[in-house]
Q: What sequence folds into this?
């Protein structure tokens, strides 16, 4: 693996010491693990990190004068929603040891997938003064570290991310989109993501009330359930390599699709299902509605 060195002097090892990322549960901090299996999009994350910076050592090593503005900042990225945003930005003193606490409150509806937290020490403004090879440009990164945690949705097979579709590649009038990636051996949790358009309030409300759905929520949830099942089964059938007999490995997307096909179309071969879908797609869609028991109480 190759690394790129910036064309300027950076903070030396040991001059910046980050503590572990913590999340607050009822205002009680606990170390953020590398996975939150019980997280769902209704759960906001209140995060913080303590960082100690030897400002004098940083300035000595980089050649930056006391007048150069240094900032410690955090940025988060969620792979599920594709969103990236800044948290706290703290200006450091001219010298001495700085004990800084960074924090951010992340809305659950903006998250999903892998949450990456980046902490950086940057030159906040252009600095004309400084020693040879000192950083000059605003935004020059003097030090950085990152930490990731995997967020899992409340559905047993689906991470869910609620996002504004006008900020994605998908039509802003759509309600949801099922993302499927990887091959059949890819882990299901890493291969599937249900993106929900936050502009569709009736849909967002239905998902929020999934534990105790109202009558209107049940209709919406059943519609989504049917469409997601259709999307997944058609995804499997259109791939000529998909087989009910293949061994894709436990908790893989292939085994998930096998279970889905076997559950909704027990005893029917993939060949028969492909033929039905190809020759009469409307009949296939109707049979799938029957199989998933659309609009029936679960």
A:
């Amino acid at each position: 693996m190759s690394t790129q060195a910036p064309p300027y002097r950076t903070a030396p090892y040991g001059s910046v010491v980050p503590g572990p990322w913590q999340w607050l549960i009822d205002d009680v901090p606990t170390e953020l693990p590398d996975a939150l299996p019980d997280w769902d999009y209704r759960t906001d994350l209140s995060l913080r990190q303590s960082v100690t910076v030897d400002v004098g050592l940083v300035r000595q090593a980089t050649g930056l004068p006391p007048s150069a503005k240094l900032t410690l900042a955090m940025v988060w990225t969620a792979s599920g929603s594709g969103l990236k945003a800044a948290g706290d930005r703290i200006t450091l003193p001219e010298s001495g040891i700085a004990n800084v606490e960074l924090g951010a409150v992340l809305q659950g509806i903006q998250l999903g997938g892998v949450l990456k937290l980046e902490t950086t020490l940057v030159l906040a403004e252009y600095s004309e003064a400084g020693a040879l090879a000192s950083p000059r440009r605003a935004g020059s990164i003097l030090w950085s570290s990152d930490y990731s945690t995997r967020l899992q949705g409340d559905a047993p097979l689906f991470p869910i991310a609620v996002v504004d579709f006008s900020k994605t590649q998908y039509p802003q009038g759509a309600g949801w989109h099922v993302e499927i990636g990887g091959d059949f051996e890819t882990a299901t949790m890493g291969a599937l993501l249900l993106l929900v358009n936050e502009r569709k309030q009736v849909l967002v409300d239905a998902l929020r009330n999934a534990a105790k759905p109202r009558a209107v929520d049940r209709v919406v949830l059943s519609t989504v359930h049917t469409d997601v099942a259709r999307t997944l089964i058609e995804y499997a059938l259109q791939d000529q390599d998909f087989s009910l007999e293949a061994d894709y490995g436990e908790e893989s997307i292939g085994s998930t699709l096998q279970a889905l096909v076997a559950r909704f179309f027990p005893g029917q071969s993939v060949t028969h299902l492909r033929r039905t879908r190809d020759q009469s797609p409307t009949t296939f869609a109707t049979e799938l509605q029957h199989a998933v028991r659309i609009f029936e109480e679960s």
User: Anything to note?
Assistant: The first strand starts at residue 16 and ends at 18.
